């Protein structure tokens, strides 16, 4: 831009031999308006986002946000409340329900997982005492291992227990446990499964309307990812109106889904709240963490919404689209101003003083 304007000023002086016309052209074409067009809109958008309860780390991503065509949600904590409730205890024939709950809660008490909090809360409400645990280890997306008393206790998916050589023959077919749409955690003591715990989560009241509006504003695909079985995923996805879902997701599965959607030509936003979502958040074009997310998730994400309301994502995407339109509008006005004003300066109708005033007016407007 600058070399072009300098060349025009030299040409004006060459043909008119009037230095004031060249100076007027240089002043009137000062790129203040062009320079201010983008940052002023960006700063205003940051302020507007903060008022909406949206924290934006990287303002340059507003341009990407206005072009999002696919959104991937982690189910728990984003589309659902993230507050699990124990709805059923199914101990094996030789196990007492209180014993099943006590072992599961004792093993899980060091975990911050929503399922762990639900187990510990129920144990306290039922006055079931918890034993101290040691050698605690949590495998993201699978389950936990801990030593409770003299026993090694595992709590997690049936596949997690099977991977560790646990005998599952004394419990019924796992697929029968989720006909009512609840998730299951299996509990083992030693090498024997001693039963399972059923948990349920509630869909956020505002989630369905948020999904509908996202699809209405031009988002082509809304995908739900969950570590639950297909029965639970299908029920929640249908209730929310998602375009598709994937169940049995471990962290690397979520990453693979995001990369596949990007390979299909979509610009992808990922919304998550847990350490399991971190790989997918990193791979996304735009990563969003909810308020209840863990520290790692918040540090990984580009944006944090402070109300854990999916509707805030819609508000942000609409705002980003308006900001992009405003930036383009500002740039177009600035170019039109220069295209019209430079010929006037060439004609000698503008003195340098008038050119200064016109330049200031264009910057302010």
From TrEMBL:
Record InterPro entries: ATPase_P-typ_cyto_dom_N (IPR023299), ATPase_P-typ_P_site (IPR018303), ATPase_P-typ_TM_dom_sf (IPR023298), HAD-like_sf (IPR036412), HAD_sf (IPR023214), P-typ_ATPase_IB (IPR027256), P_typ_ATPase (IPR001757), P_typ_ATPase_HD_dom (IPR044492)
Instruction: Classify the protein's membrane topology as the record does.
Output: Multi-pass membrane protein
Q: Which SUPFAM superfamilies match?
A: Calcium ATPase, transmembrane domain M, HAD-like
- TM spans (from-to): 23-48, 331-361
The protein's matches in Pfam families, at most eight in alphabetical order, are given as: Hydrolase (PF00702)
Which keywords does UniProt give here?
ATP-binding, Membrane, Metal-binding, Nucleotide-binding, Translocase, Transmembrane, Transmembrane helix
Q: Does the keyword Membrane apply?
A: yes
Q: Name one GO cellular component term.
A: membrane
Q: Where does this one sit in the cell?
A: Membrane
Q: Name one GO molecular function term.
A: copper ion binding
Q: Which GO terms describe its biological process?
A: copper ion homeostasis
Q: Which NCBIfam families match?
A: ATPase-IB_hvy, ATPase_P-type
This chain belongs to the protein called HMA domain-containing protein
Organism annotation: marine sediment metagenome
